[in-house]
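Posted in: Structural Biology > Protein-Ligand Complexes

Title: Requesting predicted complex, phenylalanine in pocket

I'd be grateful if someone could produce the 3D structure tokens for the following input. Sequence and ligand are given below.
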Amino acid sequence: MENNRAQWGSKLGFILAAAGSAVGLGNIWKFPGKAFEGGGGAFLLMYLLIVPLIGMPCMLSELAIGRAAQSNVVDSFGRLGHKGYAWTGWVGWSVAFIITCYYSHVGGWVLRYTVSYAVESGKVYADPLGYFYNMLGYDAAAGSTFIPWPVLIFAALFMAVCCFIIIKGVEGGIERFNKIGMPALFVILVVLLIRAATLPGAAPGLKYMLSIDASKVTPQTFLIALSQAFYSLSLGMAIMITYGSYLPRTENIARNTFMVCTMDTLVAVIAGFMVIPAVFATLGPEGVGKGGGFAFVSLAGVFQQMPGGAFFGFLFYLLLLFAALTSTISLIEGIVAFLIERKGWRRTPTTIAVGLIMFLIGCLYTCSQAALPIKGIWFDFKNGITYPAFCDAMEFLTDRIMIPVCALGCCLFAGWSWTPQNVVAEVEQGGIKFGLVKFYSFLIKFVAPAAIIVILAVSLFTGTTLS
Ligand code: PHE
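-- Reply #1 --
Done. Output follows.
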């Protein structure tokens, strides 16, 4: 197959870029809350089993599909002889599009908080919830709402930085940025871990994360861990196929998969061991919550009570900022690569146009948090038709349906249509012997699809969100 596509400049470049995609807000802000809910050690144990048994085979398949096809997410399936799977690519492409709309806005919030801790931590501490609401356009004291221009500008800035890096290309932009961003992220993470673990009163939190509470080992916890793993590893959304297509034939995909998954998991686990003990030490176990409010509101209490808190707070949001940037970049690359190849458009105008559209849709996400009553529409078999806030509807659509559907398509493709033999042949291209053929086939044919179908069914029939 002819090969005039962009390629990663080095092995490390690819690994850092793929790990940069995987390590995102999901690891640092979602994982600790879920680990807490799931009983600490019990959740960790399940997660540590799910990553190698389900996450790794899926990532290996996506990378192999991309590299074998040397194409974007939609066309890859056709190039490998199965045009009928183009829908999988379309779903993946669309998920990346929708997620970028809101992920980049949350990136804007993070940027706002990075600046806030640098210049006005006192204001954040004085009223953490009020500060957060105010950022989103709600004045709690007066009960009034307004358009939150400042945070929209931060989101625009965040998107502009991502687009700038994408325009610089695969090697000159994405790889280069990740080579700085990812090591910086690791250093900050370790500094924060040490800070948290040495806080007086951190021990109960550490203990909680290490002890296994059997009553928490439930199917529900398992499913939460499972869907967290998909999200965290950036699976089911076009990314790894696109990134795999830039991999040279000589690269060992199996080893790269292992390294990326390990790095992603390591960051999540370290984040858990940093956030939970810190919250236990300052606010007590009641302080642990989930989602945006947790990262932005509860943690203010943590930093306020910690010696050197404003500085560590600033570092924490800087960490989140790097994580969000490298992930958003991967999402945009997946979207842009398809448009450039399929439509023959040029990289720069395509990136700018797509970035602008996604930013504007994202404004509805940020504004529907509090400022404007914009609604979406939703259906599940438990609650029927409902009209959640637009921002929630966006997340439901991607997390509950589209990611599992795309991931399922990839598994069925690799397991049953293109077949594991071809995946393995692609893995062995670089002259490597892949020793786990039977095990991989079994996982990708049966275990992973079954797990994904269960996620999908539970989301649709019980109306719960698992990610
Ligand atoms: N894996 C990222 C995280 O953990 C999220 C993400 C999803 C990034 C999809 C890119 C693509 O936050």
